[in-house]
Amino acid sequence: MPIFRKSTYMSKNELKVSSGNYNDGNKEFTGIYIYEEHQEFRVGVWKFWYPNGKMKFESLFKNGNLISKTCLNSKGESIPCDSLEISETEKFRMFKEQ
C-alpha cells in the first residue's frame, strides 16, 4: 500500500517538493507544488514509479495544467497512457490538474 504525504501549509509563491514512498521504501512519486491565492498547483516535472523501481509516468505541469505526459509499462517501455493498468485513485493522483 503506497504512502501519501500531504503537503504542509505554504506561504504565497512558495515552492514545495512533494514525494512519497511505497511501504518497502522504494520511491513512488516526486513533484513540486506552488502556493498561490489559497491553492496549491502542480508545477514542473512530476514522476511516478512502479514498485519495481521502473518509471511509470512522467508529466510536465504549468500553473496546475498538465502540458505533457509520458507513460511507461513496468518494463520501462513507452505506451499510450490509456493502456496503463492503474486504479481510479492512481489515475486521479497522476493526472490531477489544479
Please report which band the strand proportion falls in: under 5%, 5-15%, 15-25%, 25-35%, 35-45% or over 45%. Answer: over 45%
Outline: globular
Average the pLDDT over all residues and give the rounded result: 86
Order of helices and strands: EEEEEEH
Rg of Cα set: 14 Å
Distance between the first and last residues' Cα: 25 Å
Q: Tally the beta strands.
A: 6
Keywords:
98 residues; mainly beta; 6-stranded antiparallel beta sheet; 1 helix
Account of the protein in words:
The chain is mainly beta and 98 residues long. The chain is built from one helix and six strands; from the N terminus they run E-E-E-E-E-E-H. The chain has a six-stranded antiparallel beta sheet with strand order 1-2-3-4-5-6, with no helix packed on it. A hairpin with a 5-residue loop joins strand 5 and strand 6. The mean pLDDT is 86.
Task: Give the topology, please.
Blueprint: E1 15-21, E2 27-36, E3 39-49, E4 55-62, E5 65-72, E6 78-79, H1 88-95
Antiparallel strand pairs: 1-2, 2-3, 3-4, 4-5, 5-6
